[in-house]
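Researcher: Quick test of sequence recovery. Tokens follow.
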């Protein structure tokens, strides 16, 4: 009996495995064509200064408009892209598109400071030897000032091989781009390396921000991260800000920037353009009002 049960389980297992393999294969084939078929999209989530309340820049977040499956989130295909190596061409597409968009917005809207663009780099991309040359080429082709580009690399990717990561980070830094550690607090950083990494900012993982206000421990963790960053002479962005209470606490903890549904969702290019225009008109009318009053 046990034997036949075992065999039945085996069958179910095989079948599931088989279905999954077939599904992955389909996804891979589709993804391979997605770039040329122009199915990839970028959405842009505003990053807000917690001191002025103004938009400081955007994070580019990939989506895939799949012909049958509809709009897919990165969680549904980035892992496949990583496994198959397709993340390299996909990642280059993202970099080129995001840099082009940032340059266009900078030209179109003259804000008092240049809007920045944050782009996520996967572990595979980060270990590509020709990454530097490719980024250099993209910056040149899009005429974007390197300082406006912020590359986000997760803490775990940096820590995986901290020695070679340091070398790569130094080469990236030499291009003039900014380097941010994404999902900070989840990857067990060694403090000695944090000192050696030439990084410009930490992004606190949203799991800590989420529990702000719910338990004291999270506030202590966020405080520790902000203090650590300030001691390193760098700024902090809080990810996943969803409530006014979280915002109040983050401001009290002197966190510089915030990103989350409380401010904005990731937005399409068209919506961002309306948003920047509205923000500009609003700040101009504030200036008029102040000069009239003064
Ligand atoms: P991430 O870089 O940490 O990006 C932040 C994620 O949090 C985004 O999810 C964003 O939509 C979501 N988010 C923002 N505010 C809130 C909030 O208030 N509450 C909640 N619950 N979530 C919020 P998204 O767009 O689904 O991206 C997920 C992850 O996929 C990203 O995490 C990043 O690791 C990866 N990813 C996205 N685009 C790219 C890309 O172009 N290249 C690579 N390699 N990875 C990407
Ligand atoms: Mg466009
Ligand atoms: Mg990110
Ligand atoms: Mg993150």
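Model:
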């Amino acid at each position: 009996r046990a034997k036949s049960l075992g065999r039945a389980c085996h069958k179910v297992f095989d079948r599931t495995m088989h279905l999954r393999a077939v599904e992955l294969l389909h996804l891979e084939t589709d993804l391979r064509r997605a770039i040329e078929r122009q199915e990839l999209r970028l959405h842009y989530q505003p990053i807000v200064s917690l001191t002025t309340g103004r938009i400081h820049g955007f994070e580019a977040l990939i989506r895939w408009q799949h012909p049958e499956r509809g709009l897919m989130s990165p969680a549904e295909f980035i892992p496949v892209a990583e496994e198959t190596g397709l993340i390299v061409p996909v990642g280059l597409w993202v970099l080129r598109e995001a840099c082009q968009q940032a340059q266009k917005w900078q030209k179109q809207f003259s804000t008092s400071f240049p809007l920045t663009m944050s782009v996520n780099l996967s572990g595979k991309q980060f270990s590509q030897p020709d990454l530097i040359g490719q980024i250099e080429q993209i910056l040149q082709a899009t005429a974007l000032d390197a300082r406006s580009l912020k590359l986000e690399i997760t803490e775990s990717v940096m820590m995986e091989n901290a020695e070679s990561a340091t070398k790569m980070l130094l080469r990236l830094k030499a291009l003039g781009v900014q380097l941010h550690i994404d999902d900070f607090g989840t990857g067990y950083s060694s403090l000695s390396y944090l000192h050696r990494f030439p990084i410009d900012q930490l992004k606190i993982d949203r799991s800590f921000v989420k529990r702000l206000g719910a338990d004291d421990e999270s506030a202590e963790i966020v405080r520790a991260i902000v203090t650590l960053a300030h001691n390193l002479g760098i700024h902090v962005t809080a990810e996943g800000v969803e409530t006014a209470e979280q915002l109040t606490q983050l401001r009290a903890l002197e966190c510089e920037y915030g990103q989350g549904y409380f401010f904005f969702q990731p937005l399409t290019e068209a919506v961002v353009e309306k948003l920047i225009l509205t923000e500009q008109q609003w700040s101009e009318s504030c200036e008029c009002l102040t000069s009239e009053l003064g």
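The pocket of C2E (ligand 1) is lined by residues 45, 61-62, 73-75, 78, 91, 94, 120, 122, 152, 182-183, 206, 239-242, 259-261, 266 (CB under 6 Å).
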